[in-house]
Amino acid sequence: MTLDVTDLRKTYPTGDEALNGVDLSVGGSETTAMIGPSGAGKSTFIRCVNRLTEPTGGTVEIDGTDLTALDDDGLREARRDIGMIFQEYNLVERLTVMENVLTGRLGYVSAWRAFRRSFPPEDIERAYEILETVGLDDMENKRVDELSGGQRQRVGIARAVVQQPKILLVDEPTSSLDPETSNTVMRLLTEIAAEREVPVLINIHEVDLAVEHADRIVGLHDGEVVFEGSADELGDDT
Ligand code: ADP
Ligand code: ADP
């Protein structure tokens, strides 16, 4: 699947011009890292792609469907194909690892409603498979509030991937993690991209992690793309 963003713009009601016409395409099984200093617009970009924040201009096409033109129902439908992984994990602390992974498939509201019902066996099977991929297959009954930061982020990844998204959007996945765990999480994301043929777009401010793991680097500064190329090219540039 392909994500084509054209001339994306966001001016906040405060007057802050966070995005000044960003063009970006991602597709295939490629991992793209969006780097740039704090305030560059990385988080605004990812949030505008799935309209957690409404862009002020531009288009966001997923396989040719413009998300900016969809009504609420259309958007809800389209978001089923978009896996989101957040900096702060956004997990339900009092639920177990398995329950958190299963909520990814249902959306929070339905998951809470369905909590006391049994889940379809095929959902549970897929959840086990993904927990194995992220190395948490012996922890499915642990409550999330008993886990380390790295384990939580892997639950977040499993919860996004279990939805079988067509694209993964990842906002600063390593900012609360130590360097070794950060490497593990980045490696896991690139493996998922390659093995499941899902393009992964990662916001990250640590340039070294981006260069080591991503296939492609996009540099954002003051809401504009200032660099785009392979990690090797970035190395030559600096
Ligand atoms: P990054 O993720 O690269 O740190 P952000 O997208 O968070 O950048 O921020 C880009 C710019 O938009 C900054 O100038 C920031 O202050 C501004 N900004 C972000 N969120 C808001 C908001 N909710 N209201 C007003 N300005 C915002
Ligand atoms: P339902 O309650 O019918 O499951 P939801 O609106 O809760 O519908 O979720 C529909 C899909 O969109 C789910 O896959 C969910 O994970 C995803 N989703 C819901 N809200 C967001 C959001 N704010 N950002 C990204 N994806 C979302």
Automatic annotation (TrEMBL):
Keywords: ATP-binding, Cell membrane, Membrane, Nucleotide-binding, Translocase, Transport. One of its GO terms (cellular component) is membrane. It comes from the Archaea. Residues 3-238 form the ABC transporter domain. GO terms for molecular function: ABC-type phosphonate transporter activity; ATP binding; ATP hydrolysis activity. This is Phosphonate ABC transporter ATPase. It comes from Halorubrum californiense DSM 19288. The chain holds residues 1 to 238 of 291 of the full protein.
